[in-house]
Amino acid sequence: MREDIREGTADLESIEFLKKAKETLINEIGQVIIGQHDVIEQLLIALFSRGHCIIIGVPGLAKTLLISTIARILDLKFNRIQFTPDLMPSDIIGTDIIQDDPTTGERNFRFLAGPVFANIVLADEINRTPPKTQAALLQAMQEYKVTVGGKTYELDLPFFVLATQNPIEFEGTYPLPEAQLDRFMFSIQIDYPKFDEEVEIVKSTTSAYKPDLKQIMSGSDILRLQSIVREMPVHDHVIQYAVELVRSTRPGDGNCPDSLKKLISWGAGPRASQYLVLGAKARAIIQGRSNISVDDIKAVSKPVLRHRIITSFNAEADGITSLNIIDDLLKIVKPREPA
Predict the structure, then answer these.
(1) Residue 49: strand, helix, or coil
(2) CB atoms within 10 A of CB 168
(3) Which is it for the CA torsion 170, 173, 177, 180, positive or negative?
(4) Residue 42 phi, psi dihedral angles, 5° rounding
(5) 290 φ/ψ sector (left φ>0, alpha ψ -120 to 50, else beta)
């Protein structure tokens, strides 16, 4: 990364650099992953916004391959944790072990770091482990540090947690508590590939072809790009629209449309408003724009709100999902005029 971009503020040159970086990343990822353009863009938006993602999709849709490919291209340390019913918190964050000093004969505790000490952590099938172990990720995701034996250890930045869930098997699973779901910036749904894409997938995966991936940027570059997103100003009417959209998901709030109150048990909290604005900023910047608009808020509303709106029994009985409610809100909630 050029030095003037690394040290500059979020000016037009920095925005143009981030746009080109995004295009280069997508081209490199495209050598391994066929299709899934929306999913890849959402992952990059979350990465540049300093957020975490939960990815929902049936087995065989290259969720793990996509995440490991991104880690290789970004020259970041990647660890995969397979969540199982017998997984313990210490298996994730690490533990103190007793070590003998051969010179003095003394025995001392030494911290053995767990797989959470990486830049990109894949929590595979996170809902297959009990809540106690799921909660071991909470402090790491929120504070970028873990505490073991009364001592706190800082995690290396950037730190990005990607959790996966299988939407078709629920036997022996432990649904994530709302407090932990709220830690994820995006909930991303991976669907089956299109016909042409699946043909290309079969061709590439059943041949001897091995793509030569280039490392596009380092961890320090990612941190600077995340700073660019944070530095971008946003007009008040855009922030107000994000807040009004989120408040409209709460059935006890006056902003919630009467037609939706019986369909929602619980709405989104303030963290959703923050992620809407951050996601909108990242989306605008990676598209080469310095102005963040209401359309950017709308574009990231589904991955931000999908897992934060809890539908009621009435909605479930009628087959109405949180995505249906978000579609209605986007039609009903109107943005304010710029001041």
Answers:
(1) coil
(2) 7
(3) negative
(4) -65, -40
(5) alpha
The tens-digit pLDDT sequence of the chain (339 residues) is: 444 334 344 567 777 777 777 788 888 888 888 888 888 889 989 998 999 999 988 877 778 888 888 888 888 888 999 988 888 888 898 887 877 777 776 777 778 888 999 999 999 888 888 888 888 887 788 889 888 878 888 998 899 999 988 777 666 677 787 878 888 999 998 888 889 888 888 887 787 777 777 777 788 888 888 888 888 889 999 999 999 999 999 988 888 888 888 999 989 999 999 999 999 999 998 888 888 999 999 999 999 999 999 998 988 898 899 999 999 999 999 888 776
- Whether omega for the bond prior to residue 338 falls within 30 degrees of 0, making it cis, is no
Q: How far apart are CA 156 and CA 144, in angstroms?
A: 8
Q: What is the secondary structure of 188-202 as a DSSP string?
A: EEPPPPPHHHHHHHH
What secondary structure letter does DSSP report for 336? P
- Please state, in angstroms and rounded to a whole number, the distance separating the CA atoms of residues 319 and 85: 31
| 75 backbone φψ class: left, alpha, beta (φ>0; ψ -120 to 50) | left
CB-CB contact of 295 with 245 (8 Å): no
Upper half-sphere CA count for residue 302 (Cβ side, 13 Å)? 12
Closest CA to 163 of 255, 82, 275, 260: 82
- Burial of 308-333, coded b for 16+ CB within 10 Å and e otherwise, reads bbbbbeebeeeebebebbbebbeeeb
Residue holding tokens 């969720």?
63
Say if CB 67 and CB 244 are below 8 A apart.
no
- Give CA–CA dist 160/162, Å, rounded: 7
